Amino acid sequence: MNNNKVKITESETIEFKKSTSELKEAVIAISAILNKHRQGELYFGIKNDGTVCGQDITVKTLRDISQLISDNIEPKIYPEISNIELCGKPCVRVHFKGNDTPYFAFGRVYMRVSDENRQLSAKELEHLILEKNRDKLQWDTEICKDAKLTDISSSKVKIFLKSCGLKYTSIEDALKKLNLLSNHRKLFNAAVILFGRKPQKFFPNAKLRCAVFATTNTVYPVDMQDFEGDLFSLIKQAEEYILKNIHIGMRLEGMYRVDVPEIDKKAFREAIINAFCHRDYHKFDSVNIAIFKDRLEIRNPGLLYGGLTIERIRKESVSERRNELIADIFHRIHFIEKWGRGIHLILELEPMTDFKEIGSQFISIFQRKNYVVDRKEGSLIEAGSQKSSQKSSQKIFALIQQNNNITIRELSKILKISGRAVINNINTLKATGNLKRIGPDKGGHWEILKK
């Protein structure tokens, strides 16, 4: 047994330095530990393996340690610095704590990972700051200062309560049940934007903007409309506007005609609900619906929240909610699920859906099926009007009947057409009710709906 070794080891909250020659590294370690655990200990006079080598200590030594920490960690901290004896040798113990994260060392931010100090990226730093201020930034739980109970529509509240199986006695009692009223009988923002008579009176961004464009860009608008109101009415208006401006096919179920939108209604409805549920209401902008010749875009102000990335939401059933109160109200009437399956549902119904973060907006992009891009001419053509496309669709349908696990790449190779052409034909088959995708791109399969 080595009598020159301490029993403790380096960890996420404990750091060893052999001497004050590593003082700069020590300051970085202190800031990193604070950012992760809010407190920790650092020892001078101990090697990384726990061997005590001792530290020459003078009044100047302690002053230098205190000075470098004070000058180079922001916000400032005031650690306890003391002489101690370990294994018969003099050492310095620095005990520190602080809750005012993030802490900067020499102008940079570090995070403790195991026994190492990793510098954070700008995105990680933003997440750290957002996490710290998460409760303060909750728009839906802020008090709507000028709103009164008389600004709430009793009819809207009654309709909602009936839909989720609750009894109505009074507006005040109902809002208390739904956690939309503070202890001092003040209305939260969520109460007004969900059930207000005129939410736009208090929130100019309680708005939906919709537009149809003649081509694949915004140069030639065909129609533009703005809608105001509570979130439930805006969601309904968005859904109706899309259905009015995309192609609707049909199929027969027995003797009845069933409308089949070129984009699955459940898929784009889910994206609309997500936009209103997760948008950043601190921003003045509105939820925007843009319908182009080749695609539908649903745009909402506010990037992904809580450190989520597009890759994670595509692969995992996770959700971070910017507006917990609004999300809870939507969940009560089954608008959303608490398990974060919204993105998975969209991708199951419309596998070619894309998601982007541009500027300060999150955008859901649905491909329209009645139009494809002519690669040679660079223009749009109607997919249904092309005989070659019809033949390709028939061949694809036949190949899928033979092998419902066949991939787009395999279809492209067999038919000697591009992957995009395969996708366009598959979308046409889906829009006409012949084909359905079950599961994700990898691990899923095709289901034939019509023989």
Descriptive overview:
The protein is α+β, with helices and mostly antiparallel strands. It has 4 domains: 119 residues, Schlafen, AAA domain (Methyltransferase, Cobalt-precorrin-4 Transmethylase, Domain 2), CATH 3.30.950; 58 residues, no CATH class; 161 residues, Heat Shock Protein 90 (2-Layer Sandwich); 74 residues, Arc Repressor Mutant, subunit A (Orthogonal Bundle). The protein contains 14 helices and 20 strands. The strands form 6 sheets. The chain has a 6-stranded mixed β-sheet with strand order 10-9-13-14-16-15, with helices on one face. About 2% of the residues have low confidence.
Which word captures the global form? Answer: globular
What proportion of the residues is helical, as a percent range? Answer: 25-40%
Cα end-to-end separation: 78 Å
Percentage beta strand:
15-25%
SS field, number of helical segments: 14
Strand order of the largest sheet: 10-9-13-14-16-15
What's the number of domains? 4
Largest sheet: 6 strands, mixed
Number of strands: 20
Task: State Rg.
Answer: 30 Å
> By helix and strand content, what is the structural category?
alpha+beta
